[in-house]
Amino acid sequence: MLDILIYPVSGVMKLWHLLLHNVVGLDDSLAWFLSLFGLVITIRAIVAPFTWQMFKSGRITAHVRPHRAALVEEFKDKYDEASIREMQKRQRELNKEHGVNPLAGCIPSLIQMPIVIGLYFALLRMARPEGGLENPVLSSIGFLSPAEVKSFLEGHINNVPLPAYVSMPVEQLAYLGTTRAEVLTFVLPLFITAAILTAINMAMSMYRSFQTNDYASSVSNGMLKFMIVLSILAPIFPLSLGLTGPFPTAIALYWVSNNLWTLLQTIIMMYLLERKYPLTEEFKVHHLEQRELYRMKEKEKQNFLWTRRKNRALMVLTPWNASTLHAENVELTDMRNAALAEKKQAVKEISNKRRETQRAMNRASMERLKKRRAEVKAKKKGLIDASPHEPSPSEEAEETK
Prior knowledge:
- The protein is mainly α.
- Helices cover 79% and strands 1% of the residues.
- The chain has 2 domains: 2-279, no CATH class; 301-371.
- The radius of gyration is 32 Å and the shape is extended.
């Protein structure tokens, strides 16, 4: 399975290496070094139009959100067939009017993730050949021939071999003609740079999310919280993985170049987005209202949790009031759970009724489709059966004679 992912990566690297080494005439090691940047340029240039569509689609979806919220509010208590059809019709018209494409945000990840995985395993196979670096059994890796794999293994950047990594055994480092200190001196600034660029990219992504987050959606709010945690942890990965894992020097070079591309691309696309598709006043008002409502709910939840924690602490400090404080906590919890359950049940009932109506509509649609197909089939069969028995005009004239 992974071999399929390795082929496009190895093919791009091979073309860049042939261009830089055979055509331009660069040194073999430098050609391999620059081919990594060429790989980033090629892949990210292919993905760039889809990334722009993702940015654009996210902004258009944000502009549509106030209209969609108004539509949902208008039909929230209706579950009859006419209302459902009208709502679906107006949703389609809304999407068509604004050009909403729900799949636009998925394409960049679907293209880029296999490339990153393929690159990692391609470089890892090149840096860790079968039989070890001392007695390598060289074989083709994707489109790369054994001779090209050998030239990669012999490549050096600033006297540091491309396949070397910090956690590599000392014997293998000595075989490659380097030491752990030399490799660390070269790759540590690269991993630090990759971590800094990752942090900046995450910060810019967080800024975009705060600009257009859908505070009315629990999924969107959960994703925003997850991104906050991820923005703290993500910069640590390049350092920890680079210094402790089998990540060759070539991977460090790729990380830096890829994160640098991402930063420059994000800056340019955010500038174009603000110029061509600025946030509308209607969205800003709706977004502010939803955010304030979300904050009120969060504040209410925090007050409830704080009251329970305070009562629990008082139960320890004043044990003679423990039963009263415990009863108060139970009453607060029951009241809150009852209120939440009541709201949830009301929404669930409407949802179930709407689902039943939709199922009935689907069944009726299937019945109409089956009936239409049966009519068409019967009509075709009637024409076929009738055609041999119907005499032509010449045959009718002959029979008359």
